[in-house]
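Regression test case RT-17, inverse folding.

Input:
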């Protein structure tokens, strides 16, 4: 897996450079979820495909920006699922964005995820790498090299609340839960990019990031293989939890299609306990 990590670092440098130099705006195509693709979404996807194709240990790649699985080496070990550029709706306004990778073996579900990596392209470029069974590692790009900063350990109780989804479409039990966190003093931290929003919750010791099912999107918006399951590994290995609306660990989630979405809640243990109580017997 080390060679995959090295390639992901190479990709991160290229995408960071692309974001800083390429023109903005939309392309004329849309992806499998129906989102109109930015030129940057397509170019980032091309960079990743080209670099990952160099590795014989990769069986297939699955991208948020590609309809189908791209088979590379049929006898190889790993399938890499990725969101090339997370934050399409905010990158042209110069907010932080990211790339997310899940490295799967022998299956495409939570149980088969062996490692995940995400990169935040912000005022600094940072990378969080999580290998199953060990604490997430936090790296920062310094002089074009990713330098290890620390391991990430979540407190059992946090202070931040990052509530996703369109509020007018929240279910009443979800609204009540979010309101209660604010009444208890939690502070709103939400940019509209799951990578920086989850990164902040992870690095500041904890809290809650939620992207629930809503009346218009009962299965939420965030995609299991490229977005949700990779972050679930980071939160769980950091000592927190990541669950769906039924209270089930997202590392047990089994998508039936590569582009499936799921409601998701990531946080420290105390906040997730409250989510489970609020959602008990609900959608
Ligand atoms: P992408 O740019 O890969 O399509 O994903 C963006 C995601 C995620 O970063 C964020 O939390 C969520 O979309 C926000 O979407 P809405 O603003 O539509 O709620
Ligand atoms: Mn995304
Ligand atoms: Mn994306």
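Golden output:
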């Amino acid at each position: 897996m080390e060679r995959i990590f090295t390639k992901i670092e190479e990709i991160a440098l290229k995408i960071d450079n692309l974001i800083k130099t390429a023109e903005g705006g939309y392309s004329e195509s849309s992806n499998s979820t129906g989102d109109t693709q930015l030129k940057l979404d397509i170019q980032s996807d091309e960079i990743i495909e080209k670099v990952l194709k160099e590795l014989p240990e990769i069986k297939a790649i699955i991208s948020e920006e590609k309809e189908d699985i791209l088979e590379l080496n049929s006898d190889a070990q790993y399938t890499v699922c990725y969101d090339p550029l997370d934050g399409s709706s905010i990158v042209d306004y110069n907010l932080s964005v990211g790339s997310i990778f899940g490295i799967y073996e022998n299956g495409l579900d939570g149980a088969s995820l062996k490692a995940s990596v995400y990169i935040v392209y912000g005022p600094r470029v940072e990378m969080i790498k999580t290998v199953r069974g060990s604490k997430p590692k936090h790296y920062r790009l310094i002089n074009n090299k990713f330098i290890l900063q620390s391991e990430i350990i979540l407190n059992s109780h946090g202070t931040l609340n990052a509530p996703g989804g369109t509020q007018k479409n929240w279910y009443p039990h979800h609204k009540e839960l979010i309101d209660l966190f604010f009444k208890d003093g939690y502070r709103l931290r939400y940019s509209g990019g799951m990578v920086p929003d989850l990164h902040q919750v992870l690095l500041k010791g904890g809290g809650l990031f939620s992207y629930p099912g809503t009346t218009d999107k009962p299965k939420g918006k965030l995609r299991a293989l490229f977005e949700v399951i990779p972050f679930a590994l980071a939160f769980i290995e950091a000592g927190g939890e990541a669950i769906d609306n039924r209270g089930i660990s997202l590392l047990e989630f089994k998508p039936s299609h590569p582009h499936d979405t799921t409601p998701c809640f990531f946080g420290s243990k105390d906040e997730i306990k409250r989510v489970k109580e609020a959602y008990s017997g609900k959608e």
